[in-house]
């Protein structure tokens, strides 16, 4: 397998292969473009070479301006060369990809501008030197390899000398495709890194864009939950309340009804009340109306009042956070208290919610048996996911024997 790979690689790097000539064409075509930066920078000095300080400064400034004006076409030609010969597509930079030729003069502090200058003044000339070396290797290799063909026309010499020169030419011809491939790879990498958009900045922009989109999705989901809560509260809940009232009224006022029919009415009345209680619980789980109307203090007070344990609640969240962050904090406390009641065997619970700068901190601590494991299906995994959806942090400490402390930090705008 290794030998087959070596043979195929040798074929690709043979002097007569298409890849060798493609690399050579790419490298050679880059020599004038990669040398153009310094040629443009030095062009004004060929016209006038002052000896006094002030004219020298003026001429130096003129050279820099001429170079900046030439950056856009030079960069565009380099990208076209990469695409035409290698099929390498280098995207345009946001600040240098279009517009007027003098636009680079307007923002000399642009990182993109300085990356392009590094290519045309540093990397480009070095690569042009490599291209010139490839040209010399092809020329010298071809001349020396053919030395034996025209040695008869030269003064008589030793056959060993002719053979050594010919062998040297053959070795040069064998090595030049590898040299051309190396210069081509360096040139393509430098062009992609310095003439295209900054990958680090592009990744930062993508991360920011994804964060904004995720925040939009979270906010949209919260708005949808609130809409469903309002629809259920104003629609299905009111109908169930009316049904329960009518069944209760029928249960209390109807007389002379057969026992079987009365049992049906009573069962229907109880089912309606249970359905109404379940619906109210569901509505509170979607988005409690009191949270939107009166804030976290009132909403969490209602949650603590329904817990069959002593709950010490401290809330200090002025100014209020966004509705999405408040909803996450509410559900964290609600689910944590539910876990305490179901699993902790605790005697009391401490709940603290406070805003410190741009962070909303939530802490739920119980004196139960401890040993809470987020992977144990106690709802802690879902809580952690909900917290991470708004870039918050979720921590739990629960040693065997207790106590268990759930700590959440949620970022919120000032």
UniProtKB/TrEMBL annotation:
Pfam families in the cross-refs: HATPase_c, HisKA_3
Catalytic reaction equation(s): ATP + protein L-histidine = ADP + protein N-phospho-L-histidine
Family annotation (SMART domains): HATPase_c
One GO MF term attached to the UniProt entry: kinase activity
Record EC number: 2.7.13.3
Keywords: ATP-binding, Kinase, Membrane, Nucleotide-binding, Phosphoprotein, Transferase, Transmembrane, Transmembrane helix, Two-component regulatory system
Transmembrane portions of the chain: 20-41, 53-71, 126-153, 159-180
InterPro entries named among the record's database cross-references: HATPase_C_sf (IPR036890), HATPase_dom (IPR003594), Sensor_HK_TwoCompSys (IPR050482), Sig_transdc_His_kin_sub3_dim/P (IPR011712)
Residue ranges occupied by any Histidine kinase/HSP90-like ATPase domain in the UniProt entry: 324-414
UniProt protein name: histidine kinase
């Amino acid at each position: 397998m290794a030998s087959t790979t070596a043979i195929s690689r040798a074929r690709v790097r043979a002097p007569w292969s298409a890849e060798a000539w493609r690399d050579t064409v790419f490298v050679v075509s880059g020599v004038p473009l990669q040398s153009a930066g310094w040629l443009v920078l030095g062009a004004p000095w060929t016209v006038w070479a002052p000896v006094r300080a002030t004219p020298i400064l003026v001429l130096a400034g003129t050279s820099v301006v001429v170079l900046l004006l030439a950056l856009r076409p030079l960069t565009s030609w380099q990208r076209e060369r990469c695409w035409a010969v290698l099929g390498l597509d280098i995207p345009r930079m946001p600040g240098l990809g279009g517009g007027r030729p003098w636009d680079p003069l307007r923002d000399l502090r642009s990182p993109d501008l300085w990356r392009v200058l590094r290519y045309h003044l540093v990397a480009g000339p070095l690569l042009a030197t490599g291209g010139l070396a490839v040209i010399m290797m092809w020329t010298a290799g071809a001349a020396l390899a053919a030395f034996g063909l025209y040695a008869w026309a030269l003064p008589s010499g030793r056959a060993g000398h002719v053979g050594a020169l010919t062998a040297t030419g053959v070795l040069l011809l064998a090595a030049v495709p590898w040299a051309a491939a190396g210069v081509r790879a360096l040139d393509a990498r430098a062009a992609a890194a310095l003439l295209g958009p900054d990958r680090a900045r592009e990744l930062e922009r993508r991360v920011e864009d994804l964060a904004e989109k995720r925040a939009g999705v979270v906010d949209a989901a919260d708005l949808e939950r609130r809409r469903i809560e309002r629809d259920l509260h104003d629609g299905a809940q009111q109908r169930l309340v009316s049904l329960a009232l009518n069944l209760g009224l029928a249960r209390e006022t109807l007389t002379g009804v057969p026992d079987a029919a009365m049992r049906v009415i009573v069962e229907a009345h109880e089912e309606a009340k249970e359905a109404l209680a379940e619906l109210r619980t569901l509505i509170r789980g979607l988005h409690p109306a009191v949270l939107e109307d009166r804030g976290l203090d009132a909403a969490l007070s209602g949650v603590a009042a329904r817990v069959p344990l002593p709950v010490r609640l401290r809330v200090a969240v002025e100014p209020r956070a966004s509705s999405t962050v408040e909803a996450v904090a509410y559900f964290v406390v609600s689910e944590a208290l539910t876990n305490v009641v179901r699993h902790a065997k605790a005697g009391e619970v401490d709940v603290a919610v406070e805003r410190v700068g741009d962070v909303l901190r939530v802490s739920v601590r119980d004196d139960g048996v401890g040993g809470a494991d987020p992977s144990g299906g106690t709802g802690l995994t879902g809580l952690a996911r909900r917290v991470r959806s708004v870039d918050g942090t979720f921590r739990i400490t629960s040693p065997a024997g207790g106590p268990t402390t759930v700590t959440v930090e949620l970022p919120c705008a000032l």
